[in-house]
Write a structure and sequence with these properties.
The structure is a single chain. This protein has about 210 residues and is α/β, with parallel strands linked by helices. Helix content is about 45%, strand content about 15%. The strands form 2 sheets. Strands 5-2-1-6-7 form a 5-stranded parallel beta sheet. A two-stranded antiparallel ribbon has the order 3-4. This is PIN domain.
Length: about 210
């Protein structure tokens, strides 16, 4: 059985699709992932709350002053640019996503069961080594922890595949000789989606917890 480690974006893309809110223009097939054994890092368990919260809050449209340097003399642009806002997602949808994430992590979801991998000193040390690729590819320390988690939990007979669409992280993992795939979404029934959205009315967890 294949092992898969979902990064935060892949996990969020799956949850948003199940809640009827696609965030990608293209859709892939998650069916193969669901047939394997799936994991997330402890950092993803925490980050997913922040990402859902971001879409739940939305963003106000605004004009901002451009501060780009426009010539070799150091002169800066004096114009403004428009930053498009983002309408907040329906609170019921966000609650449904949080509920579904909780069920996946607790192993009670019929759609997918996720195992959470803790971050220990071995993973931290390996992540520090992986950061050597940051001189060539633009990725963050949290991405390095994801990669290190997969490396530590892989064997030659059973590698852990990282599910990510992050181009820089994929390039760094390729340089490391790691396995990875682009995330996708399985076609679940609309009745399942609607059930999770409607059942969110019964969710009473606070915004700071799942």
């Amino acid at each position: 059985m294949k092992q898969y480690l979902l990064d935060t974006n892949a996990f969020f893309e799956m949850l948003s699709f199940l809640a009827g809110k696609g965030v990608r223009k293209d859709e892939y097939d998650f069916e193969d992932i669901r047939r394997g054994k799936c994991y997330i890092s402890k950092i993803t368990e925490l980050e997913i709350l922040s990402v859902i919260g971001k879409y739940g809050r939305g963003e106000q449209e605004q004009w901002q002053k451009c501060s780009r340097q426009i010539d070799q003399d150091g002169n800066k642009c004096t114009h403004r640019y428009y930053q498009k806002g983002m309408k907040p997602w329906n609170k019921r949808v966000c609650m449904a996503m949080r509920k579904l994430a909780k069920e996946m992590i607790e192993g009670t979801s019929p759609i997918l069961k996720l195992n959470v991998l803790d971050i220990d000193s071995e993973i931290i040390n390996r992540a520090e080594g992986f950061m050597m690729h940051a001189t060539k590819y633009k990725f963050g320390s949290q991405d390095a922890i994801i990669a290190a988690t997969a490396i530590i939990n892989s064997t030659e007979e059973c590698p852990m595949w990282v599910v990510t669409s992050d181009k820089a992280l994929k390039a760094a993992m390729k340089a490391e000789g790691m396995e990875f795939i682009v995330p996708g979404v399985s076609q679940v029934s609309q009745s399942n989606i609607q059930t999770y959205i409607e059942s969110s009315n019964d969710v009473t967890s606070s915004p700071s917890t799942l």
